[in-house]
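Worked example 3 (structure in, sequence out).
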């Protein structure tokens, strides 16, 4: 992302390198919205390296999220794994004095309490357990293996009484609530119907609007005969006509490789997820309205992905993450991939009343209950 993104659009200045990422994410129970993670490579590190800290609360704009070094970036005091902030303000992590990512040398992962030094960086104290010495054996797969010595101490958890959190409630925002009111649809009744049918609803206000920093896919978009969102920098403009939903189906493999089922993306075909007809659109799709909006019923508790396509059904902007919804959930995205502050044209997030939602609610009224 760094190669494509304007550096002035975000506050963070610490590079999260491309051959790895963040592992073992933990939220601070004393300071909700403060997170700790291991910043390391994906392979050959046993997911150990330095601990980083960042702010990522629900009300923090992503452009203002900042990563800082919680432990030294040069691993001068060793490597860490499984950060664990505690409810009494203390901090525990797995640590090895080994500085390099050599799996043959990292044989002494121990639980230790970390404390700040004079620079404010956190450093490890003595082992909390003194080491756990065991003799174990196992089959691998037909050969008996044995080990005798100190075990690794990984993935510690804090055992402490907590108040059970209340289920979060996110009310619909004004644009969507207005559509429900104008169409005389009782929101609770619709949600109850979706729960009974194991369905959810996904709504986007304007599929042509994208965050100004999100330039790694087709960037300037328009609905033929409708809304258009284009960067002042210009560039090719892509037409988008349909919004295609993909569901993960467990499909058995018949090749010579490992047997079993795989989650394979298939066009939406859940019989209960009935949506308005979309003549000429690809399978599993709904029409993108002239204002750029889309709305669709989708199966709950199933991994989903989606993409916008042109009039012929060719994918334009692809979403390649699995997203899952709860029964009765109505999830609204103002823009495709969201807008942190301004979209590619410099405008703020869309606040239009999504006309596609109006069409979906009118269609819902015709479905036998």
């Amino acid at each position: 992302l760094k190669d494509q993104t304007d550096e002035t659009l975000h506050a963070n200045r610490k590079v999260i390198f491309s051959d790895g990422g963040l592992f073992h994410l933990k939220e601070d129970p004393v300071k909700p919205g403060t997170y700790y993670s291991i910043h390391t490579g994906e392979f050959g590190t046993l997911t150990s390296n330095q601990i980083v800290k960042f702010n990522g609360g629900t009300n923090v704009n992503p452009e203002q999220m900042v990563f800082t070094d919680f432990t030294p970036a040069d691993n001068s005091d060793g490597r860490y794994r499984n950060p664990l902030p505690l409810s009494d303000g203390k901090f525990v992590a797995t640590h090895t004095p080994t500085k390099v990512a050599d799996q043959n040398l990292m044989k002494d992962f121990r639980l230790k309490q970390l404390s700040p030094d004079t620079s404010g960086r956190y450093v490890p104290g003595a082992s909390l357990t003194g080491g756990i010495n065991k003799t174990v054996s196992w089959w691998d797969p037909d050969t008996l293996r044995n080990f005798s010595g100190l075990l690794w101490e990984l993935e510690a958890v804090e055992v402490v009484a907590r108040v059970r959190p209340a289920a979060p409630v996110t009310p619909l925002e004004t644009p969507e609530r207005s559509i429900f009111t104008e169409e005389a649809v009782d929101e609770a009744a619709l949600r109850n119907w979706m729960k009974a049918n194991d369905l959810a609803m996904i709504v986007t206000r304007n599929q042509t609007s994208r965050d100004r920093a999100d330039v790694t896919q087709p960037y300037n978009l328009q609905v033929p005969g409708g809304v258009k969102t284009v960067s002042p920098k210009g560039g090719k403009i892509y037409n988008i006509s349909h919004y295609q939903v993909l569901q993960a189906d467990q499909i058995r493999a018949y090749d010579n490789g490992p047997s079993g089922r795989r989650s394979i993306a298939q066009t939406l075909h859940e019989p209960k997820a009935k949506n308005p007809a979309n003549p000429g659109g690809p399978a599993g799709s709904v029409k993108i309205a002239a204002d750029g909006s889309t709305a669709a019923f989708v199966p709950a508790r199933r991994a989903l992905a989606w993409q916008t396509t042109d009039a012929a059904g060719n994918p334009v902007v692809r979403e390649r993450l699995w997203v899952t919804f709860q029964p009765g959930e109505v999830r609204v995205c103002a823009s495709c991939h969201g807008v942190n502050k301004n979209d590619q044209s410099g405008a703020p997030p869309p606040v239009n009343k999504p006309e596609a939602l109006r069409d979906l609610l009118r269609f819902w009224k015709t479905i036998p209950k």
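Notes: The chain has three helices and 21 strands. The radius of gyration is 25 Å.
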